[in-house]
Amino acid sequence: MTLKIKSLSCGYDGKAITSNFNLNLKGGELLVLAGPNGSGKTSILKTIGGLIPPINGSIEIEGRNIRGMKAVQRAAIISFLYQAKESPWPFTVKETISQGRFFSRGWFGSDTANDRKIVDRAIEKANLEKLSHRLITELSGGELQRVFIARCIAQDTKFLLLDEPVNNLDPKYSYMIMELISDLVKEGRGIILSLHDLRLASGFASEIALLSGNGEIAAMGSPSDVLSGENLSKVYEISKDLAKFLLL
Question: Structurally, how many domains does the chain consist of?
Answer without folding.
Answer: 2
